[in-house]
Q: What sequence folds into this?
């Protein structure tokens, strides 16, 4: 079978016993020509449009024509959008429903994560503030001169009704020994009572076995700070009745020294403020109750005072 | 005759407006239906290559005007689409029930490649991976879905051309 179409037509026509007419072939050729002419013209016009539009500036004539035509089409576009809006909203609603459940789960996970981060951030902020306070105290004039401070975190607070003790994450490897005083920027915390290589135990001032020689920073009256189990508060005991102690006075460590003997705590560390002063005729000493400066219930970081002479 | 051209014009005009203002914003599983392309293919299959190419040109021009795109860009592509679909409808695809679907599927792919090439030649971004891999199958599927109502409507509105209006060469072979 010949590949040329006209020849194929002629071949088929002759196979069917009909000779191809020249008129039909001419008509066929005209149709083909017309078809290709239309295609050619349209393609050329399109290419010319693209070229001219691409090359001219945004104020060119073609752009102007487009702009005018777009203005004419705009009402139809607006009308089409308005007609389609309910269907689009419905489709969006259905699509939203389908995605809502998974989105809800994802958002819930995100909320949980953010909540956790918020708690951690608040924790870090508090810790940061506390550490800054300790650092400021270490650099201040109130800090005992002959000591250096080792910043330590509390890693355990064993609950007990009878003992007030905490465990710190530093020990003999860090130069800490038994009887080393422990303080915060607010005041006296207690003393080290047990030491291992990397940890140590601190007995708080609120423990029944703790005691600290102290004095009134204003009047000089001296006594011993103890924990009173009946009132669950600190008291300044053994202050003679003739000594003057006023409500609101600040009580600090006495830091006495007598020959080779010295108190455990260095001088001038704040302990508490006098809350009440009373005495009975039958009492030997004043009854003085204190409000401790340190909040023993929320300790996190402390300073262990190590004598500089120890090295 | 005049009525027929009017119907053709309105059909293509509506397709261009709907595509520009509604269907371009539709995204289903990453694909977008091309109502304009399907309409031109439907018209071409029913009316032949000359009408198909002409309506493709007009529809493309309207679309570029409505979307303020490069004039002539879509016209060029849809002119070729209309011509090829029309030739297919005049020859092997004539009176075949699968013709619209086959034509739409193939033309969607060819149209995507053509558009990418033109964009590249004009210096526009031409994301080949996104067009040919990430979204092409979704586009084909959506266009095939749209073919059912559009071709059905086109057949109802633009009745198929009479035998006398068809290419003589084809008639000669068919007799």
A:
């Amino acid at each position: 079978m010949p590949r040329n179409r006209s020849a194929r037509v002629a071949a088929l026509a002759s196979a069917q016993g009909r000779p191809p007419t020249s008129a039909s072939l001419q008509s066929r050729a005209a149709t083909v020509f017309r078809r290709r002419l239309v295609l050619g013209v349209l393609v050329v016009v399109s290419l010319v449009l693209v070229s001219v539009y691409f090359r001219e500036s945004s104020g060119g004539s073609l752009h102007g024509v487009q702009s005018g035509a777009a203005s004419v089409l705009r009402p139809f576009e607006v009308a089409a959008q308005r007609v389609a809006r309910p269907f689009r909203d419905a489709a969006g609603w259905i699509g939203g429903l389908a995605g809502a459940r998974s989105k809800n789960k994802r958002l819930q996970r995100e909320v949980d994560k953010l909540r956790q981060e918020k708690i951690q951030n608040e924790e870090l902020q508090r810790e940061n503030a506390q550490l800054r306070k300790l650092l400021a105290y270490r650099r201040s004039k109130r800090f005992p001169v002959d000591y250096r401070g080792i910043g330590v975190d509390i890693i355990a607070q064993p609950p007990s009704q009878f003992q007030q003790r905490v465990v710190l994450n530093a020990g003999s490897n860090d130069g800490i020994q038994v009887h080393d005083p422990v303080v915060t920027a607010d005041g006296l915390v207690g003393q080290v009572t047990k030491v291992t290589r990397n940890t140590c135990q601190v007995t708080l001032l609120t423990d029944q076995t703790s005691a600290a020689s102290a004095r009134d920073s204003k009047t000089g009256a001296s006594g011993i700070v103890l924990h009173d189990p009946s009132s669950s508060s600190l008291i300044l005991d053994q202050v003679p009745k003739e000594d003057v102690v006023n409500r609101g006075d600040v009580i600090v460590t006495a830091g006495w020294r007598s020959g080779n003997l010295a108190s455990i705590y260095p001088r001038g560390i704040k302990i508490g403020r006098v809350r009440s002063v009373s005495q009975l005729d039958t009492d030997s000493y004043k009854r003085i109750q204190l409000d401790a400066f340190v909040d023993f219930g929320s300790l996190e970081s402390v300073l262990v005072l190590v004598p500089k002479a120890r090295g | 005759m005049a009525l027929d051209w009017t119907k053709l014009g309105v059909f293509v005009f509506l397709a261009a407006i709907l595509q520009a203002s509604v269907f371009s914003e539709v995204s289903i599983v990453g694909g977008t239906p091309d109502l304009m392309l399907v309409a031109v293919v439907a018209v071409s299959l029913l009316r032949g290559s000359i009408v198909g190419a002409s309506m493709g040109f007009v529809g493309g021009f309207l679309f570029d005007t409505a979307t303020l795109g490069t004039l002539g860009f879509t016209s060029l592509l849809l002119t070729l689409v209309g011509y090829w679909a029309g030739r297919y409808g005049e020859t092997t695809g004539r009176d075949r029930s699968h013709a619209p679907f086959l034509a739409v599927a193939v033309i969607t792919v060819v149209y995507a490649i053509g558009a990418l090439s033109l964009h590249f030649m004009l210096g526009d971004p031409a994301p080949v991976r996104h067009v040919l891999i990430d979204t092409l199958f979704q586009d084909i599927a959506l266009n095939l879905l749209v073919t059912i109502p559009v071709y059905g409507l086109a057949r109802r509105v633009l009745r198929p051309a009479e035998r006398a209006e068809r290419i003589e060469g084809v008639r000669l072979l068919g007799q």
User: Anything to note?
Assistant: The helical segments of chain A are 5-15, 22-55, 61-139.
